[in-house]
Amino acid sequence: MPDNTTLPGTGEVYASDDIAGVKHQRVKISLGLDGSAADWRLGVTTSANAAPVVLASDQAAVPVTSTRPATATLSNVAASVTSVTVLASNAARYGATVQNDSSAILYLKFGAAASTTSYTVQMAANSYYEVPFGYTGILAGLWVSATGSARVTEITA
To answer: Is a pLDDT exceeding 80 seen at residue 42?
Structure first.
């Protein structure tokens, strides 16, 4: 049998596929909110016409390709008894590390204006800290005495 079907009386042609002598209607998928529809196309990656997918619990995990960071920028920040910027805000940051290369305590804060009463982590002399991946804001710090420095590594794409 040939593909497609002509509706009797109207002459309208509808898409169909002949599989082993049986006609199967071909359907075009549309997605959208109530009262609207957008054609779904294979390979389209915009959310406006992407097909929602639910993976069955008995299926294997879907492989995910992600961008891995490729750049490490190193800097040294001199110890100070007043609050200083240890690392500027950076939306492209994947992560960062801070090495307190000082004999004094470093009060490190996620945000501006660190103090001995307003800080995120208290770093002992010669200690190491990994900034949680996902935090891209400013880091400020101050030391108990102005000796040594913070050795900072920022990871970006």
So the answer is: no
Which of left, alpha, beta for 136 (phi over 0: left; psi -120 to 50: alpha)?
Answer: alpha
What is the spatial distance between Cα 52 and Cα 33, in angstroms, rounded to a whole number? 13
- pLDDT on residue 80: 97
Average pLDDT, the chain: 88
pLDDT digits (tens, 9 = 90+) for 108-129: 999 999 999 999 999 999 999 9
User: In angstroms, what CA-CA distances link 43 with 47, 59, 68, 92?
Assistant: 12, 22, 23, 27
The domain that holds 144 is classified in CATH as 2.60.120.770
Q: Residue 45 belongs to what domain range?
A: 5-49
Give the up-direction half-sphere exposure of residue 153: CA atoms within 13 A in the CB hemisphere: 11
Instruction: Please tell me the distance from the alpha carbon of residue 35 to that of residue 154, in angstroms, as a whole number.
Output: 48
- The tokens describing 143, both together, are 């030391």
Residue 115 lies in a domain: yes
- Residue 56 forms part of a structural domain: no
Burial of 98 (0-12, 13-18, 19+ CB in 10 A): buried
Q: Are 110 and 121 in contact (CB under 8 A)?
A: no
